[in-house]
Amino acid sequence: MLTGRLHRLWILTCLVAFCLCQGMAMGQKATLQKVDFTREVLPVLKAHCFQCHSGAQQQGGLSLGSRALILKGGASGTSVVPGNGSKSPLVIRALGQGGKARMPLGFAPLPEAQIALLRTWIDQGAIWPDPKSAQKHWAYIKPVRTKLPKVVHPGWVRNPVDAFVLARLERAGLTPSAEADRVTLLRRVTLDLTGLPPTPREVDAFLADKSAKAYATVVDRLLASPHYGERMALPWLDAARYADSNGFQQDGDTYQYLWRDWVIHAYNSNMPFDQFTIQQLAGDLLPNATDDQKIATGFNRCHLLNGEGGAIAEEQRNVILFDRVDVTATTWLGATLACAQCHDHKYDPLTQRDYYSMMAFFNNVPESGTPPGGGQYRIADPWIVATADDDKMKLKAFEDRITAAQTAAHAYLDAHSAELQTAQVAWETSALKTVATVPKLDGWTAVGPFAAASFDAAYDTDFGPEKSLDLTATYDAGKLRWRSHPEWIDGKVYQLDGENSAFYLTRTIYAARPQPLALSFGSDDAIKVWLNGKQIVADKASRAAAPDQDKVTVTLNTGANVLLVKIVNGGGIGGFTFKAQEQGLPGPILAILQTAPAARTEAAAQQIRDYYLTNFPPAELKEPRDRALAAMKERDAYRLTLPRVMVMSDAMPRKTHILDRGNYEMPRDEVKADTPVSLASLPPGAPHNRLGLAQWLISPDNPLTARVQVNRLWQTFFGTGLVKTSENLGTQSEPPTHPELLDWLAVEFRESGWDVKKLIRLLVTSATYRQSSKVTPALRLRDPENKLLARSARFRLSSLSLRDVALASSGLLDPRLGGKPVYPYQPKGIWDGLAITKERDFTYPQSQGADLFRRSLYTFWRRTVAPSNMFDTSVRNTCKVRLTVTSTPLHALTTLNDVTWVEAGRALAEHVMKEAGPRPDARLTEAFRRVCARRPAPDELLILRHSLNRALAVYRADPKAAEAFLKSGESPRDAALDPVEHAAYASVCLALYNLDEALTRE
Amino acid sequence: MNPEFENALALSRRQFFGRAATGVGIAALASLLQQDGLAAIPQASAGMPPLPGLPHFKPTAKRVVVLWQGGAPSHVDLFDHKPGLMARRGEQIPDSIRAKGRLSSMTAGQKNYPVLPPIKPFQAYGKSGTMLSTMLPHIGSIVDEICLVKSMHTEAVNHAPGVTFFLTGSQIPGRPSLGAWATYGLGSMSNDLPSYCVMTSTDQGKTCGQLFYDYYWGSGFLPSKYQGVRFRGEGDPVLYLANPDGMSRTLRRGVLDDLAALNKRHSTDYGDPEIETRITQYELAYRMQTSVPDLLDISKEPAAVLEMYGPDVHRNGSFARHCLLTRRLIERGVRFVQLMHGGWDQHSNLDTQLELQCRDTDQPSAALVMDLKQRGLLDDTIVLWGGEFGRTPFVQGDLSKPAGHGRDHLGSAYSMWVAGGGFKGGTIYGETDDYCYNVAKDPVHIHDLQATILHALGIDHTRLTYRYQGRDFRLTDVYGNVVKPLLA
Questions:
Q1: Cα(B273)–Cα(B278) distance, rounded to whole angstroms?
Q2: Which of chain A's termini has less CB crowding within 10 Å, N or C?
Q3: Which residue of A has its CA nearest to B264?
Q4: pLDDT beyond 50 at A696
Q5: CA pair distance B142, B22, nearest whole angstrom
Q6: ipTM higher than the 0.85 cut
Q7: Interchain CB distance below 8 Å, B212 and A834
Q8: In a mutagenesis test of the A interface, which of B177, B240, B348 is the best target, namely the one with the most A β-carbons within 10 Å?
Q9: Hey, which residues does A495 pair with through a beta bridge?
């Protein structure tokens, strides 16, 4: 044993070695070769000094923003003495010498290597090249394919990826790790490509395949699996901030799952990434765009939508626009364009003008900013009704029925025009006689639409007529005035335009004596009615207009009675219809009636004929008309059940302005849609719209897109990107660990025709990928972050995958692809606690049967409250392309106690008890294999046996506990199994799911 | 380098030494590290040590309690005494006053803005003689402990953005909350409980659904271990806390021992320090299974203490109960407690609801401050009371019909109070104009108050940053000034 003193010395030695390695791993040199200011020094200044000493921030009067300013120095004199680093205050302060506080103040001191770098730079004359002639940041220069580097041990190289990796390792004096054992490798690649564990049968098949191509065969099988698309969709959904609801107070549901399914399908069909880009950004702008291509644009409609009562629509619309710019810039360009929302980017060559020029691409959408309507779903324009083939057939059947009925009606009219004419004359005569005794209605007068911020506001706000009805009044600065509508006849549905808006309609009813009158209304959507100033109907409905939706019987006063109707429309087209029973003739009709037939205008004659045929049709005419109406009603009701997926559209061109400090109320210069000036310009001939933007993103001149995509794919399969900050490749990013490899892959990806599966195959068949993730203490100290890739990454699976693994290995998984979101187990009170509106029920509608066991991808993602057993996820409010993995006791509680895992343990136990024979060792081995893929080692099996025996003893002593334990979950249990034994195995299986190995991709 | 990573590295360094130094006991190792200046990390950090270099300077507070009053309490009726308003009942608020404030779309279209004076009288409380509404007698009784800021202002005019703005520094969801920043910077002080705890409650009448979203205590782009843990009113107090039916604590203990043995064996094989971390977290989970129920069990609280919090303390899930539990959390070393209480959004029921709402909150809020003080905990615990904005001095609805009227949202001026943790008791800071409408003197933007709270915790708000998407983010964005006069 070492003495304390010696031991401490040993630790210090390790530390020194460690720090040196750190410096080297960071790629920084403390040698005397020529320092590159832009590449080496400027990033240090930016990262550690500029926060307090550049631009407007000049602590101590010092700015380090240019050579002149550095020489000028601050309150205490110059900061740099060119040619003498050691005498320069910049270095002295960074070292904390000279009796003053160490810089950077309040942050960790600069690493030794960086201080040495500054010293050398000053020693060499503190050269600061003119920024215009300075070398561009690497990411803004088009990638070129470099020659494969020479390596000392070419035998290790399986494909070009390995050549780059090995060359770097050899330079650092390291050797790659051995290949992972075959079972670990199979589990790794199966999890990576499908998010599911390999079955024991798949393991056996792989082990039995002795051919050199065995691994390649497995990779091909996995890439062809439909579960590949599900797995690849996950990071894309995080980037797109996909969720199944709007967020905020009302948090209405959406139908964006159709877009989610589009993504899964695109991956499965290996859609080239350029198409993947064009369709999602601009599918609607393609010639003869298909429904599918329009649905693809749902990418830019996965934003939050604020339906809160007082929300200001234009403010919310701008929030959505900002979000679109951010999500597009991060997802495709790895650029932090959001920084330029209020001012020019501090570090990257992106101006505020660039920001708003990009925003202009997204500023032509016919949208208000808030979602209209009440009820469960809240869909904001624009959207399309997404129809599957059988939906289309059903809709066509409705249209056929309507056409047939209408044809029959027309045929009757044509064949019986003379009889009808006679009957009409008879009706006119008798009608004129009864006119005096029944109430008489004037024609309609209407005003609207009154626009409001939201459906709620339109419903609640009095735009004037409710307080005082004045048909001479004008509204909205004279734009709205009352107009009479003699052509509106009772019983028919009329259309009213304008979303989130209100119309007022009024008419006078005359009565000869106080008498009751039954009124009937239909409205799209909500309606309020007043008679003589008293409210008689208030129905905040969301629906299509049809007769008799609201009925009320009123008592009329003698003389004139004023009826006022307010129709409030949420989304789509609005409408209304009205009828009065026992009524006299509407004023305009009466007027016509009282005109001699010969003196009537042609229009008047037609109007009264329509009125007669609508209200008093003979049975032979009424029958086909009723049939048509019924079919229309059914069709409309059916359409309402179809998913309405929000998509993009450029139907409302708007001017875009630079907004001062991002404030929508402070527009400045107008800008046109364009790409950032410092990056490549739009390809020749490309339109200045989203389609042009998409073409620009995938053009060979764009330096970023391909790099950003291959970097994120690398992150998916190696845990960390070649550029660790995968969301940002700009000047503030971490430098790439393997710059030439990144560029080689980017060019390869583009030149392959953006073939995603081909690129992934290249990555996962590399020797680099196939290394073991075991690490020696020495290697871990040498390269703690595994930047040099001398081993494979080892990381905990995402919580979505953890659940999938439990479901798959226990046999509970329902592997169906796509479709409506599902509602697996969730403790009580999670959703209900967030129920604000009475417009819908926020009780968690837990799924039944197989839907409980769908992959996590399909779990309904409510934006205001994420699924309770998913941790370390993106919150799906903003774009997220890199997730952090943490380890907390709450995660442990979830996988130990949530019914999802408890039930999986029970099902897995049942499976092995029935399938693996009677021997405990065989059963435990089978369970272990289903979770971890490999066979347990003998000593591990011993611990499992011990665990089983303990549980058996406990449950034998307390069989009721066994019964209780087996009650978890809704899947049926085979009652033939002995409960005590079953519970004991179930407890061990539950433990298996909590093994570090089971939670980890290694 | 990211400080979070540096931390992780420091931990793995220690773990490495832990493994390499076979035969050296933990205590000896700790002392070695201490000598090397490597381990200024308290034992009770539960994997959450403070960032290196923090606190930046000597703090006056170690802990924070946020008593969030969701829906926006009316400063006009409760805190901002303007005797002149009584005579102005029904008078139009001058356009020059209204011009400065932005209104929500609920009253932006209103044609008349008649003054509605406070619905109940004010009176002087405490040695300081601070004028407060007679609806707040208990807060009145502790007024000499509190620092009342009458000149708060915010840009938000709607609830969710307003709450998000105060608690995360941005109106758009997705940034780390104040509690997450504090825990990230200062680490955890408790071994058995989460360092950031949240409880939610609503007014008894459930008049208005101000909802409390996860992101009000979220960690944003900070690692998710810094997010607040919500104690729930029904089912498990912490999600998935209880063992499944039929799994006794004894059996679970055995299972965890087996798991640890298997994990340790695997750790030897793989050399990944994450495995050790996992073993630790499973042990902490096991301890939480007893520490949380122990926390929630108030049966041993003396009757006098319960009485102090008022009768509502006996109702599970009430604000009063949560105030008592807050004291128990603070006693147990929890860094940050956030109570979210709703029901202040009185657009159309001011006349009836405001008083009920005061009854629910006044006594327990004051009791918590007193209880902390009696135990010597108030000195280094900040207690913050307030909501996302204030309410209009003009009426929403018909002035002559109290049954259906109220006040709309107002962001241009409102009041909040802070007690303990180095804040100056018995003081009033800032003034509004004659209508409580705009700040007239010493404005305090919510970023300023955020900066001041961090300052009391020993944190320079401009230096507690996290690099995300190429930018160093902080709670106060690029704003915020420490309001020194609020601090003793």
A1: 9
A2: N
A3: A996
A4: yes
A5: 57
A6: no
A7: yes
A8: B240
A9: A575
